[in-house]
Structure formats: C-alpha cells, structure tokens
Amino acid sequence: MSKLDELIEDALKHENRTLSGYTKEPGYFTQAKGLFRGPLGWVIWLVYLMQILAFLGGVYAFWQMLIVPESVMAVRWGVGTILLFLTTLSGKSFMGSHMEANRILREMKRLELRLSLMETTKTDNKAE
C-alpha cells in the first residue's frame, strides 16, 4: 500500500469512530418498544392486542382439546388451537418485518450522515 492509501484508511477509521459515537445500534428491547411509536404505532398496538387474544384463545382451545371426551370434538378443538397459534405467529412475523424495516431505515440515515460529513469535509478542504 502506498502512503496515500494508509492516510485515507486512517482518516476513514477516525471518521467511523466518530460516527459510531453518534449512531449506536439500539438493543433488541429498545427496537421492539420503538415499534409502538410513530405513525404506524396504532397498527402495532392492534396487532399486539390481537396476538395476546389469539394466544389466550389458543391456550383455552388446547385445554379444551385435552379434556373433551369425544374424538371428533378433540379434533375440532385441535384445529382451532392450530389456527389460533398460527395467528399469533403471523402477528410476530408482521412485527418482525417492521422491526427489520426500521433497522434498514436507520442504516440509510447513517449512510446519509456519513455522506453529508464527507461533503462537509470536502468543502472545508477546498476552502483552505
């Protein structure tokens, strides 16, 4: 590597350290709580409520499946159990996709910040 390449690499390392101080990746629970805010917060609350109700209904249907004496009724309760637990699972995947979309948006904002800092640095260097 040439001396110029080493200088560029050192400058980028310093810039990355500076940017990482401004834009730290939030933890999982912070990201999950962030879903409930913003313009789609009410949708997430609705999906979360639906998940809780479907899970409780699934537990009740599973219990009924275990205690019912007839086979046909046990199968009916079992199908209901499966459908309610699948509803819970689809709600989780919906919320997970929104969390991933928020992570991508956060990375795009970091990239925009990096580009704007690079532009500012270039204009400062030209002014000198």
From TrEMBL:
Keyword terms, alphabetized: Membrane, Transmembrane, Transmembrane helix
Pfam family, one: DUF6768
Protein name: Uncharacterized protein
TM regions (residue ranges): 42-63, 75-95
Organism of this sequence: Iodidimonas nitroreducens
